[in-house]
Amino acid sequence: QVQLVESGGGLVQAGGSLRLSCVVSGRINNINAMGWYRQAPGKQRELAATITGIKTIAYADSVKGRFTISRDNAKNAVYLQMDSLKPEDTAVYYCNARLSRWGMRVDNDYWGQGTQVTVSS
Fold first, then answer.
1. Contact at 8 Å (CB) between 77 and 21?
2. Tell me: the pLDDT tens digits for 14-28?
3. Residue of 82, 83, 88 whose CA lies nearest to 118
4. Strands lying side by side in the sheet with 18-25
5. Residue 13: Cβ within 10 Å count
6. DSSP labels, 21-38
7. Which residues, at least 6 apart from 79, have a Cβ–Cβ distance to it below 8 Å?
8. Gap between the Cα atoms of 68 and 80, Å rounded
9. What do you get for the CA distance between the two ends of the chain, in Å?
10. For the segment 44-64, what is each residue's pLDDT rounded down to a tens digit?
11. Interstrand relation of 115-120 and 10-13 (parallel, antiparallel or unpaired)
12. Cα angle, residue 87 at apex, residues 86 and 89 outer, rounded to 5°
C-alpha cells in the first residue's frame, strides 16, 4: 500500500516559521510530482506549492516569496519551508503525490491525512 505521512504542523505566531515534511512509502516506481495543498475552515482546498519532475516548481501567489518547496528523491520526501507566516495561512495542509506503483503503468494521486497549521496574530 502507498502511504503519505505528514509532520511539522503546529501553532506559531505571525511572522514565525514552520517546516512541513511528507514521506511516501510503499512499492513506488516513480513519483512524478509532489505538492502541498491547504484547506482553511469553510474554504475549498487550494494549491500552495508543487514540484514536478526534477526542478519545475510552482507556488500560489499568496505564498510566493515566503514558502519554499523542496524534494528529496532518495527519501521519497517533500518539504515545505514556511516563513513569515500570516494568520491567513491557517489551514490543514495536505501532502499530495502523483506516482506510479511498481509494476504499474498508470499514475495516481495519493494524499496524506493532513497536518494542522495555525498562525496566531
1. yes
2. 999 999 999 999 999
3. 88
4. 3-7, 18-25, 77-82, 67-72
5. 10
6. EEEEESSEEEEEEEEEEE
7. 19, 20, 21, 22, 69, 70, 71, 72
8. 6
9. 40
10. 999 999 999 878 999 999 999
11. parallel
12. 70
Grid cell listed for 47: 494549491
Closest listed residue to residue 88, CA positions, set 43, 40, 19, 17: 40
The predicted-structure confidence for 72-81, as pLDDT tens digits, reads as follows 989 999 999 9
- The residue whose grid cell reads 494521486 is 109
Any idea which residue has 491525512 for its cell?
Answer: 113
62: which residues sit within 8 A by CB, 6+ positions away? Answer: 88
Place of cell 495543498: 37
> Which one-letter DSSP state was computed for residue 89?
G
